[in-house]
Amino acid sequence: MSTPWPYPRWIAHRGAGKLAPENTLAAFRQGAAYGYRMFECDVKLARDGVPFLLHDATLSRTTNAAQVWAPGDSLTGGDHDWAQLAQLDAGGWHSRAFAGEPLPSLANLARFCLSNAYCLNIEIKPTPGLEETTGRVVGEQAARLWHGQAVPPLLSSFQPAALAGARTTAPQLPRALLLDTLHEGWCDTARQLGCAAIVCNHALWDAPLVQQVHAQGWRALSYTVNDEWAARRLIDLGTDGIITDRVDLFSPAAS
Questions:
Q1: DSSP string, 139-163
Q2: What is the span of the domain harbouring residue 192?
Q3: 219 forms bridges with which residues in the sheet?
């Protein structure tokens, strides 16, 4: 493989897996306390174009929006401006210890990562219909926030249109295609998008697939790996990155 790969093998999923409220700064601090130096997060756009962290399409599971907003208000994250989203409690659903933890913007998380020299995998999670727009905005902001940094964020998505948007505004940032199945044409799609990596459901990897990906000059990453046997299998296959919830089980210094 000719392209240098600056990222560590072990990546903390949504900050710290399930030990803290996902996609909050509290989670990233928790993952860092376990020694992790690279994190994965999910980013979508607020209605006014601010990139912020949220995995689900709606705010129901991981915030108190349903409790504090008026009945009938939309719970779709992208239907609200950032000023309103920033007031939500994104920690109390997890446990009382994290009550009051806010949703972070991408800029908030960038400051945390850059201050501590942490690496980041930004999964672009667009509201349906805003795939390319979300990719463009996330790419532009990520390029600006990490300008001049030796290790840029890795931009990934299941949505090719989002990666195409990111390539338009931030062609210099590495991109990764996420796959939950090996659908027809995935390899051509990754090639057309100029991807640097493929991020698969870990069960999809076998020796021929790893060889195929490496032969293209791409790196092979896996989600979400929470069992020792699965991690060992992926390491033995020669894959390059493991995204895990079990920051308490896997030492990021392990090989």
A1: HHHHHHHTTT-SSPPEEEES-HHHH
A2: 10-58+103-244
A3: 197
- pLDDT value, residue 18: 97
Residue 190: both structure tokens together: 């990754």
In a domain, 63, yes or no: no
Residue 199's contacts (CB-CB under 8 Å, 6 or more residues apart) are 156, 176, 177, 178, 179, 221, 222, 223, 241, 243
Specify the pTM: 0.98
Strands 38-45 and 51-53: antiparallel
Do 32 and 10 meet the contact criterion of CB atoms below 8 Å apart? no
Work out the average pLDDT over 62-71. 97
Catalytic choice (13, 80, 94, 202)? 13
CB atoms within 10 A of CB 94: 19
**117-159 tens-digit pLDDT:** 999 999 999 999 999 999 999 999 999 999 999 999 999 999 9
Tokens 């990222």 label which residue? Answer: 7
Residue 1: predicted pLDDT: 45
> Six-digit token pair at 25?
């700064």
Alpha-carbon distance of 48 to 166, in angstroms, equals: 18
50 in a structural domain = yes
Whether 55 is catalytic: yes
Q: Which residues of 111-133 are buried (b: 16+ CB within 10 A; e: fewer)?
A: ebbeeeebbbbbbbbbbeebbbb
CATH code of the domain in which 136 resides: 3.20.20.190
- pLDDT > 90 in the chain, percent: 97
Evaluate whether 46 touches 85 at the Cβ level (below 8 Å). Answer: yes
- Catalytic site residue 183? no
